[in-house]
Design brief:
Distance between the termini of chain A: 39 Å
Strand content of chain A: under 5%
Number of domains of chain A: 1
Number of helices of chain A: 9
Oligomer: homotetramer
Largest sheet of chain A: none
């Protein structure tokens, strides 16, 4: 589903129509907010995709609450192409329109982050649906990471009303941070180490 | 295929165009029927997806009638983005248009439910294509669940002509019910129990 | 890729716009060529999908000619949504337009069938890329089936110039025939039998 | 993701609208730049897909830099439908517009090739993320192939400003070359040989 949402982003960019002696190159350059929106959303969805994949490799059981939270979370991710198109259309508009567009965009990402964190808190709380042998310290580090990320996305939303540019910059930084390695001593490393120690 | 149909839903929501001094925020709020349609259809397709996945884990053989019924069933699911867009466009319209839109929407879901139930009745009848060791009592509970669900979707269709709002409310309730756990003693639980008892 | 092409078909059907006192129901009924095109193409792609899947379960090796033929074949399948939209738009048009639309549609299917048959002839010739133990008699039956199917799709194309309706009817019949069971003694059955005989 | 980008290409081709006594056939013939763009892009993405698949079968470890390079590379691939639509719209236009469209198209492919090569250089350098037993000679042959390919795509970009037609021709030739077999003694062959020698 991530693969589809991420690939659909390009559909929202329409080919420009030139009339008379207009320059196609200039028209293409004027489309820069569309390219920017495409790049940011691609990076965000790509990062969320990798994180979702990593998290579900730790979740070894399932129940209907997890299923429901996951549907709502995916509903948010699949929604992203819409605020991306909005962003592309209204970044070059009036100040008021730009603020609205960036607020809707960062707001969508904040709500997505909230549901991702809820999903993780539900699955990881009391080791409810995850590997029972997972190090509680490691879990707490992950949880802190998600809660912090959510708070920062909500701040990006608030920032949109002050400076849309700063809000978008924060979103890019957040995506780049969450594509970075997780805290030292991640599960797979520890496991491998333990196995090789046994061997 | 479910993943694709569910992600395509967002394409049907177009970015609003503001003219002159119109407010973008107001225009975005006016799009609420689109968001509502997106959310309902996402929930419905997500639930059907999970149910289809669970059912096919019980179906261990295949034949050409099952293949044909499955193609027709998927044809109904992949059709859902169209009545969803119709719903979004005509919920704010005249009473007559709203009734038509909701009737087409709930009618599509009713036909989808009919084919899902036919598929299940065909596969489960005389244990035709399912695990022969499955508890007949459990099968009967599942069958009753599908037949009941189908009747309720047909009722939602009929209700559209009386009250479109009540029809949509029933559809949301049905999606939430079918995302709920299946009857006690589901196959996997029994299996696990039996295995652990053997152990 | 089949899953995506089949699900994209719905995008080509636009929601009708009613003006003034027009009836939405009537407008929806007038869209019947769109529903017909959707249903036929869904059936055709679904059938081709199942056949492609079955054939590739017999193909156990690969080379670059097969890869190239497969890309061209998939290029034809992924093209189908375009003639489907053409069909929907011009079935209600003038006789000349209807003939053109049906000819392009059936022509696309004929070319698709030609490449599918070429792919099979290449893979199965001298057991080039398939299981070497496969019964030559069975192979010949399959090959005959593909060659016959291709001839019939070419006939559907020719028929479009005489009677577009007859051409479409033949295409539906062909899709229904190819969803039917393959000749007796298919590989999997024989294998199972042999295995159970050994047991 | 490749499967989705490749299938989305068809969405960019709109059904022509005929007015009055215009000929539908002529209108369809006039769409040839759309068919050409579709065919070239399908071939290019299909070839890149196969190459990406083959390369990732050699990459046995992963890290966050690879993940990031892969996201940027996929961002380029998923972007291809946009310059394809641009190509289709402006090939029949003025010389200046045709040059711009072909330059954007070939430029996109060149940037895609650059990121693919960077990804490979990063993964293969010092056997960083690939099978440590891979023959260094074979690796050097592969690397040379990628670097050469990238240079040729950049030449296709430069050529667009001299002759758009020659640029497109070079792109088709490149796609056909990269669908051809890799240099003799590919990993799988060597492995099989070694295994059979052991046996």
């Amino acid at each position: 589903m991530f693969a589809i949402a991420i690939t659909l982003l390009i559909i929202e960019i329409g080919v420009p129509h030139v009339v008379g002696t207009e320059s196609l190159s200039e028209k293409l350059v004027e489309l820069w907010p569309s390219y920017l929106g495409y790049a940011i959303s691609f990076l965000v969805i790509g990062t969320v995709w990798a994180n979702h994949h990593n998290r579900f490799s730790l979740i070894v059981r399932s129940d209907h609450i997890l299923l429901f939270l996951n549907i709502v979370f995916l509903m948010c991710v699949a929604f992203i192409p819409f605020p991306t198109a909005l962003l592309a259309d209204y970044i070059p508009g009036t100040d008021e329109h730009r603020t609205t567009a960036v607020a809707v965009y960062s707001g969508t990402l904040a709500v997505t982050a909230v549901f991702f964190t809820m999903l993780w808190l539900y699955a990881a709380g009391n080791h409810r649906l995850i590997d029972r042998e997972l190090d509680p310290l490691l879990l707490r580090t992950m949880t802190r990471r998600y809660v912090l990320g959510t708070i920062l996305y909500i701040m990006a939303f608030a920032l949109a009303f002050v400076s849309p540019t700063a809000s978008l910059a924060l979103i890019v930084v957040l995506a780049l941070i969450f594509v970075l390695p997780e805290p030292e001593g991640s599960r797979s490393t520890r496991r491998t180490r333990r196995r090789s120690e046994r061997g």
